[in-house]
């Protein structure tokens, strides 16, 4: 976050391209949240699977 003279703020665009920032966001945000799986209608047959990929993980 960067403050300017008018006391408002903007997000530094480099935050969107930084591997280090992405790694920190993964560790402190995404790895701590619940993620929804599929609805029963999406896997109707016994033995069907649904793979959910998020970051480096598959669930």
Describe this structure in words.
By secondary structure, the protein is an alpha+beta fold. The chain has one helix and four strands; from the N terminus they run E-E-H-E-E. It has one helix at 19-28, and strands at 2-3, 9-10, 53-54, 57-58. The strands form two sheets. Strands 1-2 form a two-stranded antiparallel sheet. The protein has a two-stranded antiparallel sheet with strand order 3-4. Strand 1 (2-3) and strand 2 form a beta hairpin. The two termini are 33 Å apart. The relative contact order is 0.12. The mean pLDDT is 82.
Could you give a quick summary of the protein structure above?
With 59 residues, the protein is an alpha+beta fold. 17% of the residues lie in helices and 14% in strands.
Tag the structure with descriptive keywords.
two-stranded antiparallel sheet, alpha+beta, 59 residues, elongated
Major sheet characteristics: 2 strands, antiparallel
Which geometry do the CA atoms define?
elongated
Which percent bin holds the helix content?
Answer: 10-25%
Helices, by number, come to 1
Identify low-pLDDT runs. Answer: none
Structural class: alpha+beta
From N to C, what is the helix and strand string? EEHEE
Into which percentage range does the β-strand content fall? 5-15%
How would you write the strand order of the largest sheet? 1-2
Radius of gyration: 18 Å
Instruction: Give a count of the beta strands, DSSP E runs of length 2 or more.
Output: 4
Separation of the first and last Cα atoms: 33 Å
Q: Give the overall pLDDT as a whole number.
A: 82
């Amino acid at each position: 976050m960067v403050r300017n003279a008018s006391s408002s703020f903007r997000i530094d665009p480099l935050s969107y391209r930084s591997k280090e920032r992405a790694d920190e966001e993964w560790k402190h945000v995404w790895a701590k949240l619940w993620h929804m799986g599929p609805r029963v209608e999406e896997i109707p047959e016994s033995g069907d699977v649904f793979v959910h990929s998020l970051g480096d993980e598959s669930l």
